[in-house]
Design goal:
mainly alpha; transmembrane; Citrate_utilization_prot_B; 13 helices; 2 domains; NarG-like_sf; Tricarballylate utilization 4Fe-4S protein TcuB
């Protein structure tokens, strides 16, 4: 196969700017079209002839970094065009998270120094909560160490702030990519795609090439599903406990076979298994096909989320012993750090990616 592409695919025009470089490579892909069936990115590319900055931002967030296109491409290095679309879109994707996050600057700091930032915050918050738990308490279970009112006072603002920050960021994203009116059909289509991790199935259901180069594997799809559903189960556990407390006057602690505990333990197990699996897969993967300059932020997110799940499970196991107070402080410190870092960590990518799927559904004519 040969391409009659000379102007904007001149190898001399390779750029350090993430949007410009991603545009150069996308234009070559649009001329080639060999990878049309790989994922949602390539049909989206073929719908355009000219790519504005917002188009590149949309494609970057629609990309799931499965890397199949790289191993199928004949224009990667040592070819003079030096295509590496997974990395180009990864750089543009992280750039969009940093630009669009509010308050500005915090996302850039976390992406470059995520491990240090997450660790410092978790330790600081744990010490703060440990000091609070040392005060005389009242109530049963964990409330004997930290009252219900104190938990609400600490965690309600920490929960609402990320939601507000992400809402502002997603609104800015929607404007940048030229999003229009949203319908329930578009949301359903995006939800079904996200629930199945459709864009990690390699286009034919055989999986992607993330950790096994030119060999297909569904490993990354499965660990993503474990992390996503684990987090949703933990959120459902907290929501259920809140409804039981305020609507029905059923206060904690709850027994193991109660709905909050069953949801929480199941979710914690999935989180831990998923995060361990993701760490193992990333160790096998080629870092040069992602965004290596921001790897600290990605690693910190996985470790912090897995630590939250693990400490939650251990905390339940040691309940009623002398370890309860200190471990409660450690667990809640990690949870608080996780909440406050959500708009600036890779946790935000779920919101951006879902929004990109909604926009893509609209572009495909879903009503």
């Amino acid at each position: 196969m040969s391409l009659d592409v000379t102007l904007q695919t001149d190898p001399g025009l390779i750029s350090d700017d993430p949007i410009t470089e991603a545009r150069r490579q996308v234009e070559i892909c649009n001329a080639c079209r060999y990878c049309e069936g790989f994922c949602s990115v390539f049909p989206a590319i073929t719908r355009e002839k000219v790519f504005a900055d917002g188009d590149i931002t949309q494609l970057a967030n629609l990309c799931h970094n499965c890397r199949g296109c790289y191993y199928a491409c004949q224009y990667t290095e040592p070819n003079e065009w030096a295509l590496n679309l997974p990395r180009a879109l990864a750089d543009a994707r992280v750039d969009s998270w940093e630009r669009l996050a509010r308050p500005g600057g915090l996302a850039r700091l976390f992406q470059r120094s995520g491990t240090a930032v997450a660790g410092a915050l978790a330790v600081g918050f744990a010490l703060m909560i440990l000091a609070v738990t040392a005060l005389p308490g009242s109530g049963e279970g964990f409330y004997a160490y930290l009252s219900h009112n104190a938990m609400v006072a600490i965690f309600l603002p920490a929960f609402l702030f990320p939601l507000l920050s992400i809402a502002v960021s997603i609104r800015r994203y929607w404007r940048e990519v030229g999003g229009g009116r949203v319908t329930w059909g578009m949301i359903r289509e995006a939800g079904a795609s996200a629930a199945r991790m459709k864009n990690l199935d390699g286009g034919q259901g055989q999986g992607c090439n993330f950790e096994k180069e030119d060999r297909f594997s569904n490993g990354r799809r499965h660990v993503h599903q474990a992390i996503m559903y684990g987090f949703l189960l933990c959120f459902a556990s907290t929501s259920t406990a809140t409804i039981m407390h305020y609507a029905f006057g059923m206060q904690a602690p709850y027994g193991f076979f109660s709905l909050p505990k069953l949801l929480g333990v199941s979710g914690g197990l999935l989180l831990v298994v998923g995060c361990i699996g993701m760490v193992m897969l990333k160790r096998k993967a080629d870092p040069n096909l992602g965004a290596p300059a921001r790897e600290s932020g990605a690693a910190a997110f996985i470790w912090l989320l897995g630590f939250v799940g693990l400490t939650g499970l251990v905390l339940y196991a040691v309940r009623g012993t002398g370890l309860t107070g200190p471990l409660l402080a450690v667990h809640l410190g990690a949870v608080l750090a996780f909440f406050l870092l959500t708009p600036f960590s890779k946790m935000a990518h779920g919101f951006y990616r879902f929004t990109a799927l909604v926009k893509d559904a609209g572009d495909r004519g879903v009503k």
